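Field: COMPLEX_INPUT
Field: COMPONENT_COUNT = two
Field: RESIDUE_TOTAL = 1010
Field: MODE = joint
Values follow.
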Amino acid sequence: MIVSCLFTLLSHWYRNPLQIFAYLSGVALATALWSGVQAINHEAKVSYRAAAQTLGEGQYNLIRPKQDKTISVVDYVNLRKSGWLVSPVVDGYFDNVRLLGMDPLTLPSSFLFANANLTSSISGNDFFELLMANENTSKNFGPNIKVIVDKNVAPGMAVGDISLVQRLLNKNSISYLIVNPTQPLEQTELEEIAPHLAIINTEQMTNISQLTDSFHLNLSAFGLLSFAVGLFIVHSTIGLAFEQRRAMMRSMRSMGVSIRTLIISVTTEMMILAMIGAVFGIVLGYLIAGLLLPDVAATLRGLYGANISGTLQLRPDWWLSGLVIALLGTGVAMSSQIWQITKLPILASAKPRAWMVVTTSYFTLQMKASVVLLTLGSIFAILIDGLVAGFALLGALLIAAAIALPAFLAWCLRKLQKSANTPLWDWFWADTRQQLPGLSLALMALLLAVSANIGVSTMVSSFRLTFISFLDQRLAPELFLQVASKDQSSELNTFLSERGIEVLPLMSVETVISKQPAELFGIKIGDTYRENWRFLDAVENPWDRVQLGKAIIVNEQFARRADLWVSDRVNISPDFTLPIAAIVGDYGNPKGQVIVNEELFSNLFPQLYPARFGIRTDNPAELQSQIINQIGIDKNSIIDQKSLKAFSMEVFERTFLVTSALNVLTLGVASFAILMSLLTLADRRIPQLSPVWALGLTRSQLGKLELVRAVLLALFVVIFSIPTGLVLAWVLLNVINVKAFGWQLPMFLFPFEYLKLGLYAVFAAFLAATWPSLRLIKTPPSDLLKVFASER
Amino acid sequence: MVLNLNSIRKSYRTNEGKVSVLNDVSLTLFAGETLALRGESGSGKSTLLHIAGALELPDEGSVEIGGKELSKMDDTGRAAVRRKDIAIVFQHFNLIPSLNVAANINFQASLSGPVDKIKLEKIVSSLRLTDQMEKYPEALSGGQQQRVAIARALVTEPKLLLADEPTGNLDEQSAESVLEQMLTLVAETNTALMVVTHSRNVAARMDKQLRLIGGRLK
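Field: COMPLEX_OUTPUT
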């Protein structure tokens, strides 16, 4: 029986190909963007896992030189002799591939390379002459280097025995030592054996996976938004198909189909179709992800130093999530229809388009629900701290705006109808009001897309302005350079002092302050800092206090993570606390920073010397060549202000390239929703338009009026989207950014951008309405006359 | 006995209050028997037909179809009775617009299993629908659509055929033709027929005639 019912239900789609196209493409578009984003996120996470497995990131304490770049073999031998169970690693770049030389005999067993000789088919001494890399990375090596392919090695990296890597990198030293978690009970202090080395605890290391969480969450939020927009198409199509089949379902019930059978049949039908749509969506998502992945990879590398694979693999984790969310989304979209089936009276007289006959009271109810939702979202965001609460507020805001839209449009149309001064316009506004329920879902989708565009573009542009001003403040010196040794540092200082050039030496160390991993900086306070740095909050004369060693300056992300603000005291070392004199904005930097004056820093870390310098000069090119020639600093260790700013801006722009692409795609999906709504409603319009045609309006006039209607409705949506988008931007800047990245950004307005976006949206609606309008213009008079002959 | 309605009462709630539609109505119908039910608009004819067709339940009284008491059944049970024992022909045909004539005729019968093709061809042929099988309902005239509805009803070999104004939407000539074919087939299959109609001509062709006045049978 179910097969017969299913066949009968499916026959509807066969006779209405446009509707099935709308339904399948709605599911496909919704699934595409979601699964595309999931594919990217998943690929990144696999890469992070591979990196953690290859590098042992965040699992072991490391021993690194306090200042120099390398550890000598003598130091390593001394440590081993003193009972330290450490394993040496050589780290360096070989033709853009990061080479890691490890010692499989001393390496802790959780490292990929520690077990490689057991799992590999190659044995004996041959193994020590091989590099391990994934398939893509292995292509970077010439025929002289033997590479064994292992998919578990992180992208962009190759691992080999330490002796082989030292040979390839032409190095005799060691980059760092991995400290085995199991150590002898008694051992000589590191400070005694090698005072120039330091232990870096796991908590001091940045965890790439945690660091990038907010980035991936942002992507997921966009995927979800696009999914929601696509779901409006699905909801609208299911609603229309249900209404058109109401009579069919009643007939089926009267012929002996039980409610249970009908529900099973409708659910099976919808789920089969959703699955077909989802498969198309997943394929589309794969293509989108493939296109976006290189940019995402560049962003993650630039922002967080995270290496992810630039090529995409079809992994069940993300395509299954696409399939599941498509089915869940369809389930949600069809739930109200299923509920209606249970209430479907077998004998009710035909009420075509009953779902369109939505009363004003229904709009009022939606408006009330909108207010309740917004209140709940705000309460949730106030009471619960965290990114999820921020996204809940964002979701509540968008849904509240969407469900309030029909009431707003109905109000506008009522006002316009009252002011109409000709019968034609009176009819036009009344007819538009009648169309509103049928079009409201597509218009809601457009609202979501335009609001998201306004919100996100306001956030990005505000960020850009702030970032440019921030770069001007922070990159005031004309040259930046890094020295290789203490001698070079002293030589450079002398060289610059002799010439009366203002130099800003910078000392730094990675440490833990207020239970947060942080970089402690020692700086020489001078006019450059005093004139250029702008604080988010500060006590009076903050620089004077820092210069006197009586206060510190911290960056915003450190202050927020440690829940500290101006005047709060911070433990710089176990027995030394200082108050915060100022909080400085530090956009784009994931790390917490604490700044003290250079004397204080040298007292705390006497063995460290300035390794980085900012230099003020009117002629950076000439000074650069003098420094290279006379002090012998490598030219790759010097960068001028202009290049550094350009690099920073490039990273910035790349970061938001993916966001912009997703924005455009969302707007495209919303335009498609309007097109599909107008097309599927077009047939239903004939009985409403025929009497007006018979009274003397031409088909061409009617077609043009349909276009005007679409454009006007889109215009109203844009007007409603602007305040919605601006509130969205405020939430993004003041809630999401603070919780995700640890910094708050000032909000700037960009009226010209909104105008441009509004025109795009109206134009998209115009394009979407063109086809249905042309169809109406070309409708043969015989079709219009059928209405009067009751043959339709 | 195919149909046994005993002391049926039915009322509806409206804005004006409770309106009693059927008041202590009883009737029986045997195999091969035909009955016309007449009455003014709003007299409760259709309600009685719907109760007889297991589409609605009475407030009081019992409904037996082929010896099965409907009030003791749930929706699935009543759906099974509608599927196997009853067929209904409506004034507005109630054809499924997305199915062609052949699929429409097959639909109800196929719900209960494979369709007897010889029987189907015979019914289709006697209703002169053989050339229309591939067409969709929208391409048929009113008379043709009603003949499809009758064919759909009879292919299921129901014990009871209920027809609600089956000729109400047809011109005189089509109405006569449809009625003639329906009566012939009912006689051939020994099916009980209850027709709700305003038409004296239609009523005159039935074995029995009853009038509903003020919710009571006369």
